Amino acid sequence: MNIDVSRWFDLTGRVALVTGGCRGLGFAIARGLAAAGAKVVVNGRDAAALADATARLARDGYAADGAQFDVTDAQAIREGIAAIAKRAGHIDILVNNAGIQRRHPLVDFPQRDWDDIIATNLTAPHIVSQAVLPAMIERRRGKIIHIASLMAEFARPTVVPYIAAKGGVRQLTRGMAVELAAHGIQVNAIAPGYFATEMNRALLDDAKFDAWVKARTPAGRWGRPDEIAGLAVFLASSAADYVTGQMVMIDGGMSVAL
Ligand code: GCO
């Protein structure tokens, strides 16, 4: 009997929400999920960026919706998720991608920056997940994908709060996976290495850092944002129904090289 492999990765009929989906890795993931058939809702704080992102997806032939809310505002999240349910239907796939980076020497890392990083990178995935879970539990089906980082496992100076937050995302993934498996919900994380995104613009423009990434990465280059989409589609699909609690590195080999 011939197996139609494409069915394993078909997201037709699924509603996917991608937080921070207007640019970078979030937009690449949103476009990949749309290409696999999902009805995609991209989230962002800025109306103009949302309009631009949904227009770009439309130009690529994908119907996408925008949901404007700040992922650090619990009430705005709940209202945003309820509005999506009314417009597009209950969320089947949640990608907690929204994240920020601030870089300072630890000794004088501003408390406000620590608070913002933890709120956006660690607390928000918890709150947004909580908002979508009742409907997933009721339907006994759901996919939650957190965007962690190579920094969930490794460290470098000047980004300690980010490292702490992403390490927390790794354990959040495991904890949620164990508690939600009985409800037919899978929770996994994608851990990007160094991708050429605007969040890393300062690093890309630093010739010394750029040379270090290329020398330290077996693939010899930065990741391209579109390269994350396939892994997101896999984890969002029925092909990964028995995969949960995992964090998958996508880093050109950096995490396994001396
Ligand atoms: C940094 C970068 C990294 C990357 C990525 C690596 O300052 O080192 O921002 O954190 O963004 O997360 O995994």
Structure, explained:
The protein has 258 residues and is an alpha/beta fold. The protein has a single domain, classed as Rossmann fold (3-Layer(aba) Sandwich), CATH 3.40.50. It contains eight helices and seven strands. The chain has helices at 24-35, 47-59, 74-87, 111-139, 160-180, 201-204, 207-216, 229-236; strands at 15-18, 39-44, 64-68, 93-96, 142-147, 185-192, 247-250. Strands 3-2-1-4-5-6-7 form a seven-stranded parallel beta sheet, with helices on both faces. Helix 1 links the parallel strand 1 (15-18) and strand 2 (39-44). Helix 3 runs parallel beside helix 4 and helix 4 (111-139) packs parallel to helix 5. The radius of gyration is 18 Å and the shape is globular. The protein binds D-gluconic acid. The site of D-gluconic acid has 14 residues, from loops.
**Percent helix:** 40-55%
Large-scale geometry: globular
- The tally of strands reads 7
CATH superfamily: NAD(P)-binding Rossmann-like Domain
Strand order of the largest sheet: 3-2-1-4-5-6-7
End-to-end separation:
45 Å
Total number of distinct structural domains? 1
Task: Please compute the radius of gyration using only Cα atoms.
Answer: 18 Å
Bound molecules: D-gluconic acid
Determine the mean pLDDT: 97
Taking the sheet with the most strands, its summary is: 7 strands, parallel
Helix vs. strand class: alpha/beta
Spans of at least 5 consecutive residues whose pLDDT stays below 50 are none
User: Can you tell me the CATH architecture?
Assistant: 3-Layer(aba) Sandwich
CATH class: Alpha Beta
